[in-house]
Amino acid sequence: MHALLLCAVALALTLAPSDAAVRVFSLRANGLKGDPAGNPPDPFVKVWCGSSFGGMTEFHKDNSNPSWSASFYFRDCGANDHLTFEVWDKDLNFDDLLGTCVSSVQPGLHQNFACSLQYGTLFYSYEL
Ligand SMILES: [Ca+2]
Ligand SMILES: [Ca+2]
């Protein structure tokens, strides 16, 4: 019984948001550029908070205006750490980097944060 209770408490502590945890969600972009032949890109995004790599979104085929469903949770990332996004075009051999966005994490909920790329705009939301 006690062991079960301890497990439940440990789980609750693990899942509870803390002061140093960042959740990134609602990634989307518009106006992304594909190849010179005019084909749209197959975009996906890689996400970091500080030095922690959070992983990458799914990619969307032939889509200059994607909305990604993936969200990211950084357990040990807090105010003034850098959120970094790399937007990539998936290709057969070598993916192309379409742009990079870096911002400094601030407390609170931030929705539809916009970052201009060379071609197009990346939008994301995050909460600290
Ligand atoms: Ca390409
Ligand atoms: Ca491609």
TrEMBL record:
Residues 1-20 form the signal peptide. GO terms for cellular component: membrane. It holds the Pfam family C2. Keywords: Signal. Gene3D superfamilies: C2 domain (2.60.40.150). InterPro entries: C2_dom, C2_domain_sf, Perforin-1_pore-forming. One of its GO terms (molecular function) is wide pore channel activity. Coiled coil: none annotated. The keyword Disulfide bond does not apply. It comes from the Eukaryota. Residues 1-119 form the C2 domain. One of its GO terms (biological process) is defense response to virus. The keyword tRNA-binding does not apply. This is C2 domain-containing protein.
